[in-house]
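thought: fold this chain, then report.
action: predict
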Amino acid sequence: MAITEFLLFVLTATLGGMFLCGANDLITIFVAPECFSLCSYLLSGYTKKDVRSNEATTKYLLMGGASSSILVHGFSWLYGSSGGEIELQEIVNGLINTQMYNSPGISIALIFITVGIGFKLSPAPSHQWTPDVYEGSPTPVVAFLSVTSKVAASASATRIFDIPFYFSSNEWHLLLEILAILSMILGNLIAITQTSMKRMLAYSSIGQIGYVIIGIIVGDSNGGYASMITYMLFYISMNLGTFACIVSFGLRTGTDNIRDYAGLYTKDPFLALSLALCLLSLGGLPPLAGFFGKLHLFWCGWQAGLYFLVSIGLLTSVLSIYYYLKIIKLLMTGRNQEITPHVRNYRRSPLRSNNSIELSMIVCVIASTIPGISMNPIIAIAQDTLF
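observation:
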């Protein structure tokens, strides 16, 4: 696949994600993620001669096709129950007119749609494709998919759950609470055992989406959506910064194993410090942006009465800090016997203004550290612009 096709698929997937964020009818909500998904399948199989990439693409395609069929089946129940309406607000009016807003059909639609959207968000237990795709796909593709799919699906989920399922708020709150708890616990527990950096980030992202779901459950009344958007903004910079560091290290060493990062600080302090800051921000250590974003998200959840969910979030955040610090300890070790051959033979490239990867690292590190100090203006912008 030539670079032209690669860029075309990236742009088309981005366009699908943008349409999904602003979709207000069932047709667009189905077509936009399909546009994104088809391009994602092609991007994940970009390295055609790589066996792991082909395996990951096959799993991604099969599970993606199954989730799409489940999603459209849920839409069909919603469409029929509302008397043939496709606009989200008109569906609510249709459900009132047909007196079907508390019918079993709406419960069936809710379950199917939750499963379909869950594939894009990849919370547990809809996460099976995530580790394999993260590990087998090219790292730049993984970096792109790790943020775009979650941002677009989160924006769409807020609209789908809040409008057509307005009369079933207790039911979808319970469903999402279960998904959030499973994601936060399983994602962070399994991440501890990983030896591949990309698989570790895959399970970490599953835990991160559990935190985001708290904002979806809280809703707009207690600032949940604004806190969710703010945290997603920080998550984009933290995640992209981490993947930029992984790309830079992988290009020079050809390895993805966590233990091969041992002693990196002795060879490339800039890369090691950049990776450490992004990981610490993902873990939520003060005074980095990830801490303030997570703090506001948990505070909104606490105000909304989600005490158990927030408590689980706090405990699993501490758990995530443990495995991030374990990696940072490897980076900073100075004992020669612990430095791997990959790092011993590591050749650092000079910092140049035209090196796009290093420029991306600098931008993402700054965005992962400084913005947390000015949280109020960012939250105010999110609140005023989108809601």
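thought: worth noting. Residues 168-387 form one domain.
final: tokens above.
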